[in-house]
């Protein structure tokens, strides 16, 4: 190409107060510099939308430094090399990149660690079940949840890419799995397609009673990616020595202040003590040493259709903001992706 | 002796509402049966008073089944064999027993696992630093807290038998130790006798600010045995990957209802997630496999005066209720014991 590239990108226009709105994002335009020695020019084809992105829009301490106003929003992408000044990358190569909410990105070739083969699994799996969300499920179960055969595992947001993978891996490990989702379609998917032992709708007025009835032997692993009233219903049902890997709290990402009382923290700490619970926060990169094992084992499961996945595609970079806003409300049904290149 | 033994014992007269009162206990009297084959008659000389006893006075699920009204209160004792129908025990032998709040107990000889040697360490250490509280400190640090040299550990109730031992072991392991206690005498003890790096009084009006100033590098291990406002001050200061072993929550044992709002649980879960925290409840028996190592290592430390301890003695079985009531208020200065035999 070797000529200036016009790049559309979505930047943080304002810090959201509570739920993000359209005006917190702005579609911007720039001319990209050409790649220099060691760099590659990538075209983003698919952008991953993930709940963690909400946290990065706030000021203050989070996983990583927050975005500044005017910064391009970050995100994992499936991208194709357009131009390369790096010996290991050639035009046409596919790669998993942290390409962001934009058409193109210039990246250091050395930072691109995962080459994608479009002939084995669909490329988009690298953003979902065979990427960060799937590895979150795998690592959180392997290192913290450790479901044993016959134990009961509960997971919420269970039709999402983390939850669905958690439940299916736990089934493969011999656990009894209760999945929680919002709405009858998702519940039916968990029950009829993913083979969960029980699937519950958290919108049911008697949800807490349904959950209690669904776990006659209590809960040994609660994979926490939601928080809110699901956690509230789970807490009293946890067994002695239960494990609670915490990888997300999407019910709270739009909170602007602590909810009204009573203060349930002392009661929760009391249960942690009296039931010998382990509650542990993590992100998948904490266990990056497991990644090769994940790629091997999950790759085999996917090729053998022992793990299934769903995708939920938003068309067009310009619709990514609405895609994220909806994701935070639970509108997605499966892994939410933005198709940037039609 | 071989004649009927009159036994004074203290029974649960009523379930406390909030802080226990004298009327919740009753001094009772009974004639003990003589030991049968395999049993021993023990005279309790020293009774341990421990915060966990408050939980057992409630109805409902706790570590173990709750007491019923009329039951003798349980507790660890240093006892001497009076009469033995068991081949391995002889009159005069000293033993660590779960003898309860009473003068005598008939025990199965096979259940007595720890013979005490009065010529090495003082017998009472088997109820404190060289017993359950000391092992709680040792095991919680070894299995969960894992302080590394140079890391910062914070412990509350730091002049009590668990806290003082936690702080001293952490110092031996190379950590920087901040101890928290109530009142100037206790604070001076931590600083001047136990050699903690910093000692703070939680009663100070600016306690939270003092704590923040005392941990310029944040907190890597918070050994939780108190809860309440100390935990509140600690939470925002925890570092990424901090560990919080939870072995007690004495500030809440007399709670009758959740405190007023706001609800701090979502915020705490948010910190567990964003800072990759591990919060784990335990009791020492979860790690009983470590006990021989504890006896060996702690025994050496005690003989070499590398670990110091304090005792706080209440005289007379009839004063045990007031001893426990005061313990739950933090009136004790060191390990609280009841001397049953003058």
TrEMBL record, chains A, B:
Residues 23-325 form the Enoyl reductase (ER) domain. InterPro entries: ADH-like_C, ADH_N_2, ER, GroES-like_sf, MDR_fam, NAD(P)-bd_dom_sf. GO terms for molecular function: oxidoreductase activity, acting on the CH-CH group of donors, NAD or NADP as acceptor. Coiled coil: none annotated. It comes from the Bacteria. CDD domains: PGDH. Keywords: Oxidoreductase. SUPFAM superfamilies: GroES-like (SSF50129), NAD(P)-binding Rossmann-fold domains (SSF51735). Pfam families: ADH_N_2, ADH_zinc_N. This is NADP-dependent oxidoreductase.
């Amino acid at each position: 190409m070797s000529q200036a590239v016009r790049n559309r990108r979505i930047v943080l226009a304002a810090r959201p107060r509570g739920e993000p709105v359209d005006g917190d994002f702005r579609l911007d335009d720039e001319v990209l510099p050409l790649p220099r020695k060691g760099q590659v020019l990538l075209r983003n084809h698919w952008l991953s939308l993930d709940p963690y992105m909400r946290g990065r829009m706030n000021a203050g301490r989070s996983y990583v430094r927050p975005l500044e106003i005017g910064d391009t929003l970050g995100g994992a992408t499936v991208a194709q090399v357009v131009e390369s000044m790096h010996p290991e990358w050639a035009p046409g190569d596919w790669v998993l990149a942290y390409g962001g909410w934009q058409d193109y990105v210039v990246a250091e070739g050395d930072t691109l660690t995962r080459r994608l083969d479009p002939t084995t699994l669909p490329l988009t799996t690298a953003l979902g079940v065979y990427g960060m969300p799937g590895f979150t499920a795998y690592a959180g179960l392997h290192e913290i949840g450790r479901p044993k055969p016959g134990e009961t595992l509960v997971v919420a947001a269970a039709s999402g890419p983390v939850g669905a993978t958690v439940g299916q891996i736990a089934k493969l490990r011999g656990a009894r799995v209760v999945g929680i989702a919002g709405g009858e379609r998702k519940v039916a998917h968990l029950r009829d397609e993913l083979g969960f032992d029980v699937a519950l709708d958290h919108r049911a007025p008697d949800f807490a009673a349904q959950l209690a009835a669904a776990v006659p032997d209590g809960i040994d692993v609660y994979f926490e990616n939601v928080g809110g009233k699901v956690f509230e219903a789970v807490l009293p049902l946890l067994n002695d020595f239960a494990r609670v890997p915490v990888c997300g709290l999407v019910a709270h990402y739009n909170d602007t202040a602590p909810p009204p009382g009573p203060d349930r923290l002392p009661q929760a700490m009391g249960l942690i003590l009296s039931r010998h619970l382990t509650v542990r926060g993590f992100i998948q990169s904490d266990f990056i040493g497991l990644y090769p094992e994940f790629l091997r084992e999950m790759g085999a499961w996917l090729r053998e259709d022992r793990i299934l996945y769903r995708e939920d595609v938003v068309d067009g970079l310009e619709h990514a903001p609405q895609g994220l806003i909806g994701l935070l409300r639970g509108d997605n049904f499966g892994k939410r992706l933005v198709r940037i290149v039609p």
